[in-house]
Structure formats: C-alpha cells, structure tokens
Amino acid sequence: MKNIKIKDFVMKYIMYIVLVFMVITLTVANDKFLTLNNVMTILKQISIQSIVAIGMTMIIISGNIDLSVGSIVAFCSVIGAMLMASGVPVWIAIILVVLIGAVIGFISGGVTAKLKLHSFLVTLALMQAFRGLAQTITGGYPKAGLPDAFGGIAAKSVAGVPFLVLYMIVFYAVFVYIMKYTAFGRSIYAIGSNEESARLSGINVERVKTMVFVISSALCGVAAILLTSKVRSGDPTCANGWEMDAIAGAIIGGTNMAGGEGKLGGTVIGLLFVGILANGMVLLGVNAYMQSVIKGLVIFLAVIINSIQKRAHN
C-alpha cells in the first residue's frame, strides 16, 4: 500500500521532481546559475510568453487549441509600432493593439464555435495569414522609430524586480481568480470536460468558447506591446514558435490536452521548466541546434507523461 502511494505521488508530481533535480544539477554544474541576476533573467525571459500561455491554457482547458498566438503577437507588434511611429499617442496605440487582438480572437473563436470547426484547422490557417500579413505590411523588416518613453514599459524595475515580472504576476493573479472563483471559469472547465453536458446544464457553449479566444488574443495584444517595448521595434518575425512554448508550458504544468483539467499555476511552473532548461543549456555551452533537439524531446516526454497521468487518474 505504501509503495502504491509513493508511485502515485511520483506520477502526479514527476515534472516538478524533474524540475527540482534540474535546478540542483545546474547549480552544481555552473556557479552562475543560482544567482539573483540569473534568476531574474530567467523570469524576464519567460514573462511575456507566460502572458500568452494564460490564454493558451484556458483554450486547452476548454477542449480547443490555438496555433496562431505567435503570429497574432507579431501582427499586433507591427501594428503597434506603425501606429506609434506615425505619431499616435502611446496609450491610444496600446488600447488599439489590445482591441485588434480581441477582434482577431472573436473571429477565430466565433468561426470555431458557430460553425463547429476544429480549432486546430482554423488557427493553423490564421497562423499563416497573420504572419504573412505582418511581413507584407512591413516588407519583412522591423518597424522602428518608437517614442523613448514607450521603452520604459518593459525596461524599468522596482526594488530590483523587473516590470515584466510584475506584469506576469499581476496577470496570473487575475486569471487564477477568474478560473477558480467565477462562473465563467467553471464554465470553461465544464465545456472541456463534456461539451454536451455543459450545454444541457444551461451554459452558452458558443459564447464561452468565443470569449476564451477573445481573451487569449487580447492577451497576445498585451504581449505584443511588452515585446515591442522590450526590443524597441515591431518585428514581423518575432514570437516565432511561441505557440509551441505556450502549449509545452501548459502540458508540462499538468493541463490535459483533452480538455477539462489544468491550472494556470501549473502553466507557470511548466514555462519555468522550459526557461530553466534553455538558460541552463546556454550556461553549459550546448550547441544551439542541440538545444532545439533537447527542448523537443522534453516536450515529447511531457506529452507522454501527460497521457500516462490521465490514464492513471481515470
């Protein structure tokens, strides 16, 4: 009986155990790893992607997927940069970018929900379309000439903590509350668990599904603003592959790809896992190509573990 309990515990928290083991290993291997400066570097590196991962986690919990988040970030980044470079006040440009993101989400979510299409196909098409559109309107080159004050949104810090990290904490606090304590959050879990049962219980499935995509894409708009502020330009090639990082963070953090299960807190841990892995490989001088191989294998194993955990739970 005791062995069974230990086995269940290990299976439930295996990714967290691996994370602790990885931290210990990297600390021993490189004395620069567990320094305050490097820890803040890791948190800054995952902060903007973490905001995108909030929406991705909500979408996956609802039983869907969104492959277009990286392209939406790039498109919104370009639009925001072009607005500010043309003289539009910073805060008006920020609001417009977030609204544009929300409209894109309304389109993808509305089409998915109303026409009952698979979100994979819908967002795959939009991924290509918005990445191409971002490159078309810029000629494939970054758009610079942004106001100096705009850079402070991402560059500043307070008491040694970067604003980017604080933004991440605030957004997660808000959405953890929404997912855990509101009827809307509970509806997302219900739809992901059993859409037909959710509909019979009075939940407006189409509206909730659409709103989840709207929120996710609006968060992509927020991420675009922060990323544009960080690099001081709107780059049509930015955020490439972010959809995979967001999905990886959600899966490693315990979100069930079949829907109905997952926690935003777990997604943060999942992204921290990916961030620490990437940072550690850089410190250890791992070849850039090999870094991609290792990262892909980790995601592959996480998917397998996620499936095993789901079967064990059932």
What is this entry, summarized?
With 314 residues, this protein is mainly alpha-helical. It has a domain at 46-239. The protein has helices spanning 2-12, 14-29, 36-61, 69-85, 90-114, 119-138, 148-155, 163-181, 183-193, 195-200, 205-231, 242-252, 264-283, 288-313; strands spanning 157-158, 161-162.
Give me the secondary-structure topology.
Layout: H1 2-12, H2 14-29, H3 36-61, H4 69-85, H5 90-114, H6 119-138, H7 148-155, E1 157-158, E2 161-162, H8 163-181, H9 183-193, H10 195-200, H11 205-231, H12 242-252, H13 264-283, H14 288-313
Antiparallel strand pairs: 1-2
Helix pairs in contact: 2-13, 3-8, 3-9, 3-11, 3-12, 3-13, 4-5, 4-6, 4-11, 5-6, 5-11, 7-11, 8-9, 9-11, 12-13
Task: Give a verbal description of the structure.
The protein has a two-stranded antiparallel sheet. It contains 14 helices and two strands, in the order αααααααββααααααα. The longest helix is centred in the last third of the chain and has 27 residues, at 205-231. The chain is an all-alpha fold. The protein has a domain at 46-239. It is globular. A hairpin with a 2-residue loop joins strand 1 and strand 2. Helix content is 77%, strand content 1%.
